């Protein structure tokens, strides 16, 4: 399978990028005196990591018939000091909220995503130390 995107310059530091499902995302960077209109490319990488793993986890939990009231992920990346700057360490924290959470199954769903299914996670492991943690918030 191949994916193809087209990214078009919109002036200044703004770019519009499509994806295979024909949705668009705006990308730019901090420039003094200009309003940000999109995400930075590096921040989008962290969002891609969360999205990829999150989709896996939700799918696995549905198959396990595990219900949660809320699920979110926080992803933090530490950049190298020298150019080209890239993420050398990445922390992914999974937050699950609900009453009577099945922690064993949730742990298993996250483990399957991290170790087996999430391709973006595997790509990150090629250049970064990826650390994961799970937090349970019982109501």
UniProtKB/TrEMBL annotation:
The protein in question is named: Osmotically inducible protein OsmC
Q: Which SUPFAM superfamilies match?
A: OsmC-like (SSF82784)
Its domain of life reads: Bacteria
């Amino acid at each position: 399978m191949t994916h193809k995107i087209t990214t078009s310059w919109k002036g200044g530091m703004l770019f519009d990028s499509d994806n295979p499902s024909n949705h668009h995302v705006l990308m730019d960077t901090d420039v003094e005196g200009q309003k940000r209109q999109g995400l930075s490319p590096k921040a989008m990488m962290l969002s891609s990591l969360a999205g990829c793993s999150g989709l896996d986890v939700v799918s696995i939990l549905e198959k396990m018939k595990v219900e949660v009231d809320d699920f979110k992920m926080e992803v933090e990346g530490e950049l190298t000091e020298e150019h080209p700057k890239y993420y050398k360490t990445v922390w992914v924290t999974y937050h699950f909220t609900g009453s009577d959470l099945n922690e064993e199954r949730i742990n298993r769903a996250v483990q399957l995503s991290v170790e087996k299914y999430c391709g973006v996670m595997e790509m990150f492991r090629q250049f970064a130390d990826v650390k994961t943690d799970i937090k349970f918030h019982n109501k």
